[in-house]
Design a protein that fits this description.
Length: 384
């Protein structure tokens, strides 16, 4: 399920170890100018207004939402820091519900799920009709593999957020817990009726349909949904990554390289680009391998765990280090349990010659009746 999953990014060519300047005034990187467009202009104007009136809660929340939206689109966590700065006067104890929900969204993006859930519970105590709080809570529960709890959080959305959002929320959790085909059909039919849905919501739903079809082994249907999603609205990093994964599984590496050729800042997208470049034997793949090594090293030095799934995938498929990949996959599994988390865990365990290590995934698949053709094949190998 789509979730804001971001890391600190480094542009340009990287070396094997992080650079620490002797002079604290040294400029490490010049951030790119925000792309032209009405959204960027509006956000800049709101930021100027907030600077003049920093205690204006309405302005602050609008600025914070804008930065969160940009963080999602560009997979750049620096915008989350800007969002937090906008909310600084209300960040501590006694925050209003609107700030609690935004704070939970920021914490969710950083995989601080316990504190995000605490914020959402507090927000719902204040405002039980806050649809965004219910949806965010459902998302976190699903990412953690807690599908029953996710479904419970989806139920209020039927009366608070409209049929399409409520159905998409329900289908995401139900589709992962034994009701794959029924969830897909219900969501597809609901989308067909909701022609007035916003482009952003349509893209979210179409991406969900693509992933559900892919888990059922319906590649042509999945691709049709992915392409419609890409054409519906400006694609964000999540959609590009999901489509790239689909193409990689189809061994369409040239298309991945074309899709992501300029996506060098987001680690998640650079990883997929590197996987395609290696398969194609492109010279710049080695440069990107070194860049990813440096980024993952820097991530560990910062103590964050945002990239454990990607780092496990990098260790397994790029560095050919299955034992290290298995260690990372196990660490990632303790907090993040989506199909790709299960997949890299199973792949690493099999590659390391230690299928028994994947027992937690096998138990999870069985307990939740997860329906996924690729996971089923891997699980069968691991259970032998």
């Amino acid at each position: 399920m789509r979730i804001l999953s971001l890391v600190l990014l480094i542009s340009g060519t990287c070396v094997a170890a992080p650079f620490v300047p002797a002079d604290p005034k040294t400029v490490l990187e010049k951030l790119p100018e925000a792309p032209a467009g009405s959204f960027s202009r509006e956000l800049r104007q709101l930021r100027r207004e907030l600077a003049r009136d920093p205690e204006n809660l309405v302005l602050a929340t609008r600025v914070a939402r804008g930065y969160i939206q940009r963080a999602r689109a560009e997979a750049d966590p620096r915008y989350l820091g800007y969002a937090q700065a906008a909310l600084a006067p209300w960040w501590g104890a006694g925050s209003p519900a609107v700030v609690l929900v935004l704070r939970a969204t920021i914490r969710q993006s950083l995989h601080d799920f316990p504190n995000a859930l605490a914020d959402l519970s507090a927000a719902l105590e204040i405002d039980p009709r806050n649809a965004q709080a219910w949806l965010t809570r459902a998302t976190i529960r699903q990412v953690r593999g807690e599908f029953g709890e996710a479904l419970e959080s989806c139920r209020p959305l039927e009366r608070l957020a409209g049929e399409l959002v409520a159905t998409a929320c329900w289908a995401g959790a139900a589709g992962m817990s034994g009701h794959s085909e029924a969830s897909y059909e219900r969501l597809r039919e609901t989308l067909a009726r909701q022609r007035a849905a916003s482009p952003g919501v349509r893209q979210w739903v179409l991406t969900s349909l693509a992933e559900m079809a892919e888990r059922q082994g319906k590649s042509r249907l999945a691709e049709a949904h992915f392409k419609e999603a890409l054409a519906t609205h400006e694609p964000d990093a999540y959609l590009k990554g999901a489509y790239a994964d689909f193409l990689l599984d189809e061994e369409r590496h040239t298309e991945v390289a074309a899709l992501l050729r300029n996506e060098l800042r987001a680690d998640t997208l650079l990883l997929r680009l590197t996987l395609a470049e290696q398969k194609l034997g492109l010279a710049r793949a080695s440069e990107h391998v070194e860049a990813l090594k440096a980024r993952f090293t820097a991530s560990r030095m910062r103590g964050d765990s945002l990239h454990r799934r990607e780092e496990a995938r990098f260790a397994l498929h790029v560095l050919r280090a299955p034992n290290e990949a298995l260690r990372l996959a196990l660490e990632n599994w303790s907090v993040h349990r989506e199909p790709w988390d299960a997949r890299i865990f199973l792949e690493a365990a099999l590659a390391a010659g230690n299928p028994g290590a994947a027992r937690p995934v096998l138990d999870w698949l069985r307990a939740n009746r997860v329906q996924d053709v690729r996971l089923a094949a891997l699980a069968q190998q691991a259970a032998r």
